[in-house]
Amino acid sequence: xxxxxxxxxxxxxxxxxxxxxxxxxxxxxxxxxxxxxxxxxxxxxxxxxxxxxxxxxxxxxxxxxxxxxxxxxxxxxxxxxxxxxxxxxxxxxxxxxxxxxxxxxxxxxxxxxxxxxxxxxxxxxxxxxxxxxxxxxxxxxxxxxxxxxxxxxxxxxxxxxxxxxxxxxxxxxxxxxxxxxxxxxxxxxxxxxxxxxxxxx
Length: 201
Hints:
Elements: H1 20-34, H2 41-47, H3 52-58, H4 62-66, H5 70-82, H6 91-98, H7 100-105, H8 109-124, H9 132-148, H10 156-177, H11 183-200
């Protein structure tokens, strides 16, 4: 190369921004087609046109792909709890504050459609409920009951677990019912049935 020749420095373009919601939706389509166990992370990365390394950075597991956004939801709930005065809520007020907002969000069509698809997938793969975020949520809910609710005769862990089980059963039934009732009404129906049993026992 002559001394008069200038070296041209190759400029790299800005890296492509990854839409994590789109990646999660791509995975969801594959899971619906082949089942969760029938899809590899390599297949998801290829379908989403990203590297395997990038996929694992965004979503360390298949469960993280199914439950995209759950950690953010948990953190938001924790922040909201900090503003509640200790032992200041009845059980009904606690249920209204902690369960109803999420159920009402499922009345928004686009939210409902995605939630229904996820829940139908989970109904066929119950192991997805073993996601670490659910374990942390159960622990948090138990501590929130103990901190916020006016003294109850039922142990906080038992009460929190019972409410969670009713909520999960309700939304899975809602997903399978294909819009017969809203998720919120399904939860209310289940709570009402439990209350009726208690009155008769």
